[in-house]
Write a structure and sequence with these properties.
single chain; five-stranded mixed sheet; HATPase_C_sf; elongated; Heat Shock Protein 90; binds adenosine-5'-triphosphate; nucleotide-binding; chaperone; unfolded protein binding
């Protein structure tokens, strides 16, 4: 069967490509510079000796011209490549594809965003005929032979549409040329009223020495980076610098790496050219062989892209490993400022874990400490899995000479649990907060017998709150009770409260979530036999007073642990407080 060709509505396609492919109207400058540079490459490939150059000239009445002394186009080439959307010389010459920046055959259409017509005058390096081509966004074009003298190369003329005149003004054009083309290997000149300015700079950042790059970054971002990391990939031909930021950055902050393809800016806000853990650096990278998307604002995320990304990540890793040896002071500063990023790296990579772990700081029952100092004094370490559990035990733990590390912050639990893999003499145990109080000193048989009725009363009063009572001797003496729970009590209590106050439907929703996600929490209330008030409560013969003190010990412990008090617990606290106030006012010395 004879296959048919799709019918194309040319106007629709041109509109689609020119107005919707690119995010910024200014990209026409990039596309024209790129065509000029590619044409110069093409002429050099013909074996002709000349100094390549691209000139952008600004005229009054918002018109510009872009002239290159590249290959130019023959009439046949105009018909084949210029007048045919999607055709590109740069794809035809297969072996040369790597030399050119363009490849899709749509770049010129970006000019239709800002101009109603593209006029192009050209003389091919292959034959002598000067030609003029004029194209319109409705898909029509004309070709005319010119009799006048024209040098080899091409000039494109554009006149601004009413809404885009500012793009054709000197200051705006110079900003766009600098943004996209300042590192191109061919001189780009900007001319107005005979005044000529060279827009290209001789050395791009990825060819600078460490000191040059440092000064360059400092001038560009107004802050001195901590250091410059050279980046290079074997595959994909990537080369660049990563500068270490001198301030901490949040994991959520979007990265903005500046990426060039064959020296032409591709994007100044690329997020993923480095691995996600590398958020303590910003990078400027040039690559030769990654493939751009058609809009030329990102790379195609193919296998090569991820290989390059891994290789660049490896450069950062190697740098840190060497730095630890060569400049311990700077290494230490980087770790201090960027611990969040480096902790993520260490969790994922054994080699880096071994390198960093001693330098990381953790919150401990002795205050914030560097791991090297923690293990110097403690070979047995307890890690609290949540911040809540850490807070429950921190103060008491210190008084018992117990080293408890807060594993509640991102990665800290994993980092601590891994510790014996690099420090064999250290044992690390995850804290079981319910069992924590049983580490304290037991009472003698006599003391236990004496405290028994008090504990029984406590169990009786608090049994309805899933709380069991015990008694031990521990430091510090000024803490009467220690309240420990094995669950996220905040959530559970809040859920119970909401359920009580909500309408039937919502209460059911809360109950389902709560029962599905959380096992009912248990708690332990450990009285401190070392505390004088607890002793008085045990020894008191007044049953009412005993009861009120248990209720107050319990509710106070909840408050101190930042737990939400239920309605019944609030009532309990009020009742016992009022009772003590009354007793105070009724005391003989107050009455008199
Ligand atoms: N200044 C120029 N000198 C010589 N040939 C040119 C010039 N500008 C455009 N051309 C020709 O026109 C073709 C189409 O150009 P266009 O900018 O649309 O696409 P491209 O550069 O090939 O690819 P891309 O869409 O990736 O930019 C080119 O392949 C080239 O053959």
């Amino acid at each position: 069967m004879q296959p048919f060709n799709f019918q194309v509505n040319l106007k629709g396609i041109i509109d689609l490509l020119s107005n919707h492919l690119y995010s910024d109207p200014g990209v026409f400058v990039r596309e024209l510079l790129q065509n000029g540079v590619d044409a110069i490459t093409a002429r050099k490939r013909l074996g002709q000796a000349f100094d390549g150059e691209v000139k952008v000239e600004v005229f009054s009445s918002h018109s510009i011209s872009i002239t290159d002394n590249g290959s130019g186009l023959t009439e046949e080439e105009i018909e084949q490549f210029l007048a045919r959307i999607g055709s590109s010389t740069k794809r035809e010459e297969q072996d040369a594809a790597d030399d050119y920046i363009g490849q899709f055959g749509v770049g010129l259409l970006a000019c239709f965003v800002v101009s109603e017509e593209i006029a192009l005058v050209t003389r091919s390096a292959k034959d002598g005929q000067a030609l003029e081509w004029r194209g319109k966004p409705d898909g029509t074009y004309t070709i005319k032979k010119l009799e006048r003298e024209v040098s080899v190369g091409t000039t494109v003329y554009l006149k601004a549409k009413a809404d885009y005149e500012e793009y054709f003004e000197y200051y705006r054009l110079s900003g766009l040329i600098e943004k996209y083309g300042q590192y191109l290997p061919i001189p780009i000149l900007l001319i107005e009223d005979g005044y000529e300015q060279t827009m290209t700079v001789p050395t791009p950042p990825w060819r600078m020495s460490g000191e040059e790059a440092m000064a360059f970054v400092e001038e560009a971002v107004y802050t001195k980076p901590l250091d410059i990391i050279p980046l290079e990939s074997r595959l994909g031909g990537a080369r660049g610098i990563a500068y270490v930021l001198p301030y901490g950055v949040s994991l959520q902050d979007e990265k903005r790496h500046r990426v060039y393809l064959k020296n032409m800016l591709l994007s100044d806000k690329m997020t993923n050219i480095l691995p996600p853990w590398a958020f303590f650096v910003n990078a400027i990278i040039n690559t030769d062989s990654l493939r751009p998307t058609a809009s030329r604002e990102a790379f195609q995320e193919n296998e090569l892209f991820y290989t390059v990304r891994d290789e660049l990540g490896e450069c950062i890793k190697r740098y840190l490993i060497e730095l630890a040896d060569s400049n311990a002071e700077l290494f230490e500063r980087i770790v201090m400022i960027h611990y969040a990023s480096l902790k993520t790296m260490a969790v994922e990579d054994d080699e880096l874990y071994a390198l960093f772990i001693r330098h990381f700081r953790f919150e401990t029952s002795y205050g914030e400490m560097k791991l090297a100092d923690i293990v110097r004094e403690h070979s047995s370490i307890l890690v609290a899995a949540t911040l809540d559990e850490f807070r429950q035990v921190a103060r008491v733990a210190k008084a018992q000479n117990l080293m408890v590390v807060n594993g509640g912050y991102v990665h800290d639990l994993d980092l601590m649990r891994n510790l014996p893999s690099v420090l064999e003499q250290v044992t690390v145990q995850v804290l079981n907060s319910l069992e924590f109080a049983s580490r304290f000193e037991e009472l003698s048989v006599v003391e236990q017998r004496e405290a028994r009725p008090f504990l029984d009363l406590s169990d009786e009063l608090l049994g309805g709150y899933d709380c069991r009572s015990l008694i031990r001797w521990f430091e510090p003496a000024d803490i009467p009770v220690l309240y420990n729970t094995n669950q996220d009590m905040h959530f559970f209590r809040m859920a119970e409260e909401s359920e009580r106050e909500a309408n039937a439907l919502f209460a059911e929703v809360v109950r389902t979530i709560r029962d599905d996600m959380y096992e009912k929490p248990h708690a332990r209330l450990c009285y401190n036999y070392n505390n004088p008030l607890v002793r008085k409560a045990i020894e008191s013969g007044d049953a009412e007073l005993k009861k009120a003190s248990i209720e107050l010990f319990y509710t106070q412990a909840l408050l101190l642990g930042n737990h939400v008090l239920g309605a019944k617990e609030l009532e309990m606290m009020n009742r016992s407080l009022l009772r003590f106030m009354n007793m105070g006012f009724d005391a003989p010395e107050v009455r008199s």
